User: Fold this.
Amino acid sequence: MRLLAFFLFCLLCGTAAALGIACRRLRQQERKMEEAAARIREYLLDRRRGGMECNEEGAMYHLFHELNSLVAIADAHADSERQGREFLQNTISDISHQLKTPIAALNLYNGILQQEAENAAAVKEFTGLFEQELDRMESLVQSLLKMARLDAGAVVLEQSPENIAELLEHVKAHYSFRARQEGKEIALMGDEQAVLLCDRVWLSEAIGNLVKNALDHTARGDQILLRWQQSSCLTAIVVEDTGSGIHPEDLYHIFKRFYRSRFSKDTRGIGLGLPLAKSIVEAHQGSIEVHSRLGCGTSFAVHFPMMTK
Assistant:
């Protein structure tokens, strides 16, 4: 009997100890659940960011890991939306700023035209200025539309093998009249048989913007050279000039939209030509880089992977 009683006593003690451990464990789990619920409430109220510590193993901590993953994803989406709103706000501000100048000029010219209605020479002069400002506004709107289409992935490149010499000759012809007026030379150099798989219209736009940028930053007597070469795996098209060069401070910013250098003497540019060229090149799976020295000129190099069978 004594042995049985001792056995029962030990059994009861063991059971009580097990129950105590289980209760303590349940209380710990309950506290963890309450902590998790509090963290979730705090996160939803956006009082603080961050997840829950979960350094141990087990189903509860696995749940915490999953919750932390959801929190991280939600934070990433929130940051992306915030950056998108900031970008949109800055873009609208930039567009408004860019449009203010031509609109103000148009209003001024309109007032002068009304006052000088009987002066044919004045009417002709200000009609020409009127047209320049309208062209500037049209260029801004068209560039913005192209950028928006590229950003939205709405552009489907119709790529086909194109002779590089013919494509660049077409670009040269487009800017030859302006180059002659300004006393500048546009030259071509490269293998006349070289072929590149590309969308002719869009790539002509990109290279044309690089040529226009070169014309904007060169003086009478300067030269703009369009040269190209191919290797076994790469096609390079380079637009280089003997102009004023780019200030080192600007080299890291020239592909930003609406960026205007404080050193630039160009008062008519809108700061979209180079970003648009970069977007078009990247849509072709290519890359673009710039090298420049003040007073010595600038070189834009565009690289494309060679087409394969």
Remarks:
- Strands lie at 160-163, 185-189, 195-198, 223-230, 234-241, 287-293, 297-305.
- The radius of gyration is 33 Å.
- The longest strand covers residues 297-305.
